[in-house]
Amino acid sequence: SSSSSSRPSDSEQLEEPSKPVMALDKAKEIVASSPVVVFSKTYCPFCARVKRLLAELAASYKAVELDVESDGSELQSALADWTGQRTVPCVFIKGKHIGGCDDTMAMHKGGNLVPLLTEAGAIATPSL
Length: 128
Description:
Number of domains: 1
CATH architecture: 3-Layer(aba) Sandwich
Distance between the termini: 69 Å
Largest sheet: 4 strands, mixed
Oligomer: single chain
């Protein structure tokens, strides 16, 4: 029997992944888990506007309130690195970064938001 296999594994594996990496993984996981995700802050009027619009369209969405989440600031920096957008709301539909409040509103004005939400499965289409 060889005793070499019982030696402790390299110390490298014991290191925790860095916080930014974890936050980015978490952000990507959240985005992948829901058809519509709004990274938001509870006191932000622009976030409220986007959430109100989604509610008016009867679209289901997941709101992640960065001022409530314990790792909210890490998540916000991770989102900034990932999307290039530092501000909230940071809206994703079907895993795709849509942008902020203005982008989302402009998309709705242009008639592109509802089809995208429907395609994502966030808006229930009446079955014929």
